[in-house]
Design goal:
With 250 residues, the chain is of the alpha/beta class. It is built from eight helices and eight strands, in the order αβαβαβββαβαββααα. It has one domain (4-249): HUPs (Rossmann fold), CATH 3.40.50.620.
């Protein structure tokens, strides 16, 4: 009889395999760089990709990057991440940066003066910059991000409420200015399943969490989505179907 951990892994892995088969996320010869924050989602993503890389088809390589921010008080155990990657035979690259690396970034309109960006934007921008830089140095052609179905649904509502557009993160996004693609292999997985698996699997939690994670628009939208799910338990799947239908028709 399968244990609950084995059952959950099978469920997550089936959705992982369906995602990369449906949206052509992995191909022979790919070199994938995984953005490893140390949270449950990125650990689950790395485990899925690391184990899948041992299978003959498709043949691909996996590296991982962990970006440490000097001036933001969240932290993961480097020793744990190194051991986790070693067990999966995945090389780990640790890079340190800070929000101070670019306090001012150009505005969208050239005629407007540069303005200081909010700390969450700067943190995300600088982390992504390090990820993209390393991906190109290593010769990777894909970057894997740990966004799951809940993230995609929340982003959809955020774009609808704050940007006036019905769209979200896509399973596969090919970059226009560089030979890289972003993939989200957990796009069909629900956060509650990942969280339960992480607990049963014994993932080590982050030592310090981001001090802003409970005060952002995303955190507020997460609560709103949870309330909507009380009205419609199939909300997330409905939003996902609407997004895919719009893409297919457009």
């Amino acid at each position: 009889m399968k244990t609950e951990q084995e059952r959950l892994f099978k469920k997550l892995n089936e959705k992982f395999v369906r995602a990369f088969a449906t949206y052509h996320l992995l191909e022979d010869g790919d070199h994938v760089l995984v953005a490893l924050s140390g949270g449950k989602d990125s650990l689950c993503l790395l485990e899925m990709l690391g184990k899948r890389a041992r299978i003959d088809k498709p043949q691909f390589r996996v590296d991982a990057i962990h970006v440490r921010m000097e001036d933001v008080s969240y932290e993961s155990s480097t020793d744990y991440l190194e051991q986790f990657c070693k067990e999966l035979n995945v090389p780990l690259h640790i890079v340190t940066t800070s929000t101070q690396a670019s306090r001012h970034l150009p505005d969208d309109k050239e005629e407007e003066p540069q303005r200081e960006k909010p700390p969450c934007f700067l943190c995300s921008w600088n982390r992504r910059k390090q990820i993209f830089n390393l991906a190109q140095e290593l010769g990777c052609n894909k970057i894997a991000l740990g966004h799951h179905l809940d993230d995609i649904v929340q982003t959809t509502f955020m774009n609808l409420c704050f940007q006036g557009r019905f769209e979200s993160m896509t399973p596969l996004l090919r970059m226009k200015k560089m030979p890289l693609a972003l993939i989200r292999p957990l796009c069909l997985c629900e956060e509650k399943d990942i969280a339960e698996y992480a607990e049963l699997r014994g993932y080590q939690p982050q030592l310090k969490h981001c001090p802003h994670e409970d005060t952002t628009n995303r955190a507020n939208m997460k609560h709103i989505v949870e309330q909507l799910e009380e009205i419609s338990p199939i909300l997330k799947n409905s939003v996902w179907k609407a997004l895919r239908r719009m893409k297919d028709e457009g």
